[in-house]
Recover the amino acids of this structure.
């Protein structure tokens, strides 16, 4: 008879996510994961499969959280405020201990996506989702008058999506709040 699971799966995945997010997939060892989750090797493998399977499940938790947060921020009225709030959230915690982690999806676009088709598909989906949700916010902004630029919403969203990883990387390498605010102001001028 199998022994009943004695841990909360979501909590374990969030702890694993934190390690993968901080160190990256390649630099994360089984010992790191065991220390973070307080689970044995057999419990980790028995419950989640191998390291890659655990990573994929943890990465998916990250993606769900970020999608929920993004949709919440971009639903603000007027729409321009939501767009600005979303982009400000990318560097809102410059002084926090995790600010150097950047966006896990951007990180994985570089680390794993070039050689792992599943991770690549997840990252592509993330960027498509960002584009779609921004497009809807821009259209709302054009309708409510908070976005004065009447170019195609898809084109404006494409510019904003292209800037997304750049802002993430600038924050990750330690650009200060003033520089980030200036970059954001230049980017948001595309809404005018």
């Amino acid at each position: 008879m199998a022994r009943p699971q004695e841990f909360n799966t979501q909590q374990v995945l969030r702890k694993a996510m934190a390690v993968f997010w901080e160190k990256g997939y390649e630099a994360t060892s089984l010992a790191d994961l065991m220390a973070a989750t307080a689970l044995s090797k057999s419990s980790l493998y028995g419950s989640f499969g191998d390291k890659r399977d655990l990573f994929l499940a943890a990465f998916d938790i990250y993606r769900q959280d970020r999608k929920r947060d993004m949709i919440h921020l971009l639903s603000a009225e007027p729409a321009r405020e939501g767009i600005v709030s979303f982009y400000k959230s990318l560097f809102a915690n410059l002084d926090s201990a995790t600010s150097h982690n950047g966006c896990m999806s951007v990180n994985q676009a570089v680390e794993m996506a070039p050689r792992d088709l599943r991770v690549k598909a997840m990252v592509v989906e993330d960027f498509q989702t960002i584009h779609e949700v921004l497009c809807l916010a821009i259209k709302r902004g054009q309708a409510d008058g908070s976005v004065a630029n009447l170019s195609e919403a898809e084109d404006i969203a494409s510019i904003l999506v292209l800037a997304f990883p750049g802002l993430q990387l600038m924050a990750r390498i330690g650009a200060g709040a003033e520089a980030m605010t200036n970059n954001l102001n230049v980017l948001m001028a595309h809404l005018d």
